[in-house]
Amino acid sequence: MQPAISVKNLRKRFGDNEVLRGIDMAAQDGEVITLIGASGSGKSTLLRSIPFLEIPDSGSITVGDDHLAPTGGHLSRREEVVARRMRGHLGFVFQGFNLWPHRTVLENVIEAPIHVQKRPRAECIEEAVALLDKVGLSEKRDAWPAHLSGGQQQRVAIARALAQRPRAILFDEPTSALDPELVGEVLKVIRALAEDGRTMVIVTHEMGFAREVSSRTIFLNQGIIEEEGTPDQVFGNPVSDRCRAFVSGHFDRNR
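and the corresponding structure tokens:
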């Protein structure tokens, strides 16, 4: 079966710093992949490269039936058309929520389905209301983002991603901008999505959460995949010395 997402020999450089050094990764439908590693290891760059928010220097990315192999860190006009089509199959949840401040919660959720996917407004509203209920925010449908807590804003962002009916959802450290007491409410929603069989790739520093929800965990170090396996393998019996030190250091700090 063709993966939902396939990344092959991906490379990305910022100036003299080669951030990604030949990454190979695939996410099957229904799989939850967590990307872990120290700051600067390449996790977010890898995640942002999948929808071409960062343009790789070389390598290839496949989402469903669409495939691109850009070179030189830019896209041609033809490639940009394909990239937009690929983005249409992906939901993306950012660290900083990125809600439109001048639109209500409901309007944020229905914006892309109506104006990008050209779906009927009534259908989009009905689905958005159901999604807001799913993330525990049905009573906030007419609220403005500025009147919500960070955790509530992130849950709206998740509903907005789901409203696009994506094949996979990409999460870039979805709890890193939240106060500690709000982290749990967002992780609860993501955990429920995992239980529903949603395909997800998640960059996270929440090691306990990663161990709990992952089908597979990938440890990045200095732009390469240094460890990959089931959560039990990566967290319980890592082969890499660096991965072992990273994991044990995290859990030691949180005892």
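(Above: one complete record from the training split.) The chain is about 40% helix and 25% strand.
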